[in-house]
Amino acid sequence: MKCVRCRKKGVIHLKRHNAAFCQECFLYYYKNQVKKNIKRHRMFDKEDKVLVVISGGKDSMALWHILASEGYNVTGMYINLGIGQYSDKSQQVVESFAQKNGLELIVKDIKKEYGLDIYKLSKLLKRSTCSVCGSIKRYLFNKVAYDGGFSAVATGHNLDDEAATLLGNVLSWEEGYLARQSPVLESTHPKLVKKVKPLYTLTERENLFYVLINKIEFLHDECPHAVGARSILYKEVLNRLEEESPGTKQRFITSFLEKGRRHFQDAQEKLELRECSICGQVTTTEVCSFCRFVKLSNQNTEN
Ligand code: Q46
Ligand code: ZN
C-alpha cells in the first residue's frame, strides 16, 4: 500500500477514493477537502468572523484546529449543558485546547447563566432530553453568533452524520427536513446567522486520524444520551453497505445534493418568522421556546 501522491509507505487507506496516503499527504488531502467545501458552497472567507461550535469530540476539535491553522477568523463556542461528568470533562478538554493554542473561546453554561436544567425541563414538558437540549443549543448558537457579529456558525458534522440523517429523513419522507439538508443553510431573516458544515465530505475515521496525527486532545466518550439513538443504527447499516460497496455514503449525499434536494424545495414550510417579545430572537410564536424554558425553570424554583 503506497501513498498515491508521493509513493512513500501509505498509513491510511481510503477505500472510497481507492487511495492510500502517507501521513503528510493525508493532511494535504484533508486540508484540500475542507478548503474545497468552503469554497464550493461559499461558506465564508478569511475576512468573515466564524463561530465554531465545539463539543470536545474529535469532529469539532478537528474542525476548530484546521480552520485556525488555515488562518480563518474563528472563535470557538462551548455550551455546558449540565450533563454530569460528560459536560465537566468536555469543558476541560475544550478550555485547555483553547488556552494551549491561544484560541478565542466563548463558554456558555445553561444552568449558571439561565437556570436551565435539561432533565427537569424534559419532565415538565414531557419532551425527550435530546429535544430540549437541541432547542437550547440551536437558540444559543444563533444568539451568540448574531450578538457577536459573526457571519457563520460552523459545526463538525461529518459524512457519516450527514448520510445517517439523510437515510432517516428518506425512510420517513420528512420532506421539510430533506429540503433543509445541506452543507449550507442560508439565513432567511436578518437575525438568523447562516449555518455551515465544512467537514461534510470527511468521515469520522478521517477526522479521528486528523486529530491523532496532530495530537489534539479530545473527549472519547459520546454524550450518554446518544446511546440507542436511531442515528447510530442508521450509521451501522450504512457502514455495512460501505463495506460491500465503498463510496456508498458519499454517492448518497452528493447525488442527493445534486439531483434530489431540489425536488423538495417546495416542501420548505413557509413559516411566518417574528421576533420573540422577550429576547428579540427569531421565532414563530409570540415568545420563543428558550424564553419559555427560562420562565418555566424560574417558576419551578420559586414554588
Ligand atoms: S442532543 Fe442529546 Fe446530543 Fe444533547 S442530550 Fe446529548 S445526545 S448533547 S448531539
Ligand atoms: Zn426569546
Automatic annotation (TrEMBL):
Keywords linked to the UniProt accession: 4Fe-4S, ATP-binding, Iron, Iron-sulfur, Magnesium, Metal-binding, Nucleotide-binding, Transferase, Zinc
GO biological process, one term: tRNA wobble position uridine thiolation
Record carries keyword Flavoprotein: no
Entry keyword Membrane: no
Database matches in InterPro entries: Ncs6/Tuc1/Ctu1, Rhodanese-like_dom, Rossmann-like_a/b/a_fold, TilS/TtcA_N, tRNA_thiolation_TtcA_Ctu1, TtuA-like_LIM_N
Binding site for Zn(2+) 2: 276, 279, 288, 291
Residues annotated for Zn(2+) 1 binding in this entry: 3, 6, 22, 25
Cofactor(s) annotated in UniProt: Mg(2+); [4Fe-4S] cluster
Domain named Rhodanese: residues: 33-95
Pfam families, per database record: ATP_bind_3, TtuA_LIM_N
GO cellular component: cytosolic tRNA wobble base thiouridylase complex
GO terms assigned for molecular function: 4 iron, 4 sulfur cluster binding; ATP binding; metal ion binding; transferase activity; tRNA binding
Name this protein carries in UniProt: PP-loop domain protein
Species the sequence originates in: Caldicellulosiruptor acetigenus (strain ATCC 700853 / DSM 12137 / I77R1B)
